[in-house]
Amino acid sequence: MGVVYRARDTRLGRDVAVKVLREDIASNPDRIRRFETEARAVAALNHPHILTIHDVGLHDGSPYVVTELLEGENLRAVASRRSSTQRQVLAWAAQGLAAAHQKGIVHRDLKPENLFVTTDGRIKILDFGLAKQTDLTAFDADEATATSPTKPGMVMGTAAYMSPEQAKGWPVDARSDLFSFGVLLYELLSGKHPFRRETAAATLGAILHETPAPLASVAPSIPRAVDGIVMRCLEKRREERFQGAHDLGLALEAVLAAPAGAAVLEEVEERSPYPGLSSFTEKDAAHFFGWEEEVKALWQRLQNRKLLAVIGPSGTGKTSFVRAGVIPAAPAGWRCLWVTPGNRPFAAVARALVPELSNDPETLKRLVGAEAGEELTAALRV
To answer: How far apart are CA 37 and CA 128, in angstroms?
Structure first.
């Protein structure tokens, strides 16, 4: 909606960018209002991963905004080369988004073109032209109070990156941006957009009703922890997504911290300086002893039972027993999957089993049952 020029700030001796509203829409009051919204939204923020605004004004009736001048390219171009740079910038972008949300600002148009990677490797969030201010006192409500000029039922944003609530024209809050961010993550990590179809209408239909294939089935090199983060962002119900960009950023930092230049993303596990306070895992099997009879008894029961639960009070060692005792003792022919179930345990099991049983959908359905719902149906399409 605007034209960007490179200019020189003669007073401070620096190069800047000047964005001017195009003449063909400068007479449209709504467009001008949106342009001014962007200026106000960005001016309210001060963060290293958000475009810095220097000045706003009018020239011959046309509004303009002066910002820092960026050298580099947008994230779409970076991703097309499968650059290792994108691993860290994704976590940085989440930090910038968290800063906006803390000010009650929802972007509403996150997409690769609105994330800019500078020549020195920094990320900048651009184009808050569709941003809206939310009432922070009502942030936890399903319908945050909006002070933007858009009306209820009006669909704003880029169709392929909209959240379900945006596609329906519902009021949005910060969790809408997290869905869009999940679409970005899925596309950039797998090279495949999770919802894009031949038409905008079909794309919106996919966003509303379809569950994308697990990342592991599209890009097998992606760690399961990353898959879990992305799929949580893409939950249809916003209550089931991350509830804040800060939490998303921390999760990304934990699993996307692969060494620079690594061929694939590596899952990073935080190590405690006091191992005795942490649960044992499969790596600790050689140091886990004293439970041999219990492990043997469990495997005997599993021979005749479809489902077996290990229960007990918190802190009694259930996780250590299963991961360092039961799993390493699996009989020949058995394979084990470690799944964090979340709010939909059967759906999580279905997604984990798809890579193993994609050629035998009937067996998969019998194992997880009908409770997996749409997630299982979508996963089996791949």
So the answer is: 8
How far apart CA 258 and CA 269 sit, in angstroms, is 11
The two structure tokens encoding residue 204? 């919106």
Domain count, the chain: 3
Q: Collapsing DSSP states into helix, strand and coil, what is residue 184? A: helix
The dihedral region occupied by 172, where left means phi > 0, alpha psi between -120 and 50, and beta the remainder, is: beta
Question: Is 263 a member of any domain?
Answer: no
pLDDT in tens, 277-320: 567 888 778 878 888 999 999 999 988 887 888 998 877 889 88
Q: In whole angstroms, what is the distance from residue 352 CA to residue 332 CA?
A: 21
CA distance 341 to 283: 22
Spatial separation of the C-alpha atoms in residues 260 and 272, rounded to whole Å: 24
pLDDT tens per residue, range 108-159 = 899 999 999 998 888 999 987 555 555 433 323 223 323 333 444 444 458 9
Please say which residue of 16, 34, 68 terminates a domain: 68
3-state helix, strand, coil in the chain (%, to 5): 45, 10, 45
* Position 85, amino acid: T
Q: Could you list the residue range(s) of the whole structural domain that residue 20 is in? A: 2-68
Q: Which of 15, 109, 142, 227 is catalytic?
A: 109
Residues 42 and 24 in one domain: yes
Return the SS3 of 172: coil
Q: Which of 73, 238, 228 is nearest to 167 (CA)?
A: 238
Cα dihedral value 20, 25, 29, 31, nearest 10? -70
Rg of the chain in Å (alpha carbons): 24
Question: Tokens at residue 219, please?
Answer: 């890009």
Domain C-terminal end among 223, 255, 287: 255
Does the pTM exceed 0.70? no
Are 163 and 46 in a shared domain? no
Q: Is 120 a catalytic site residue? A: no
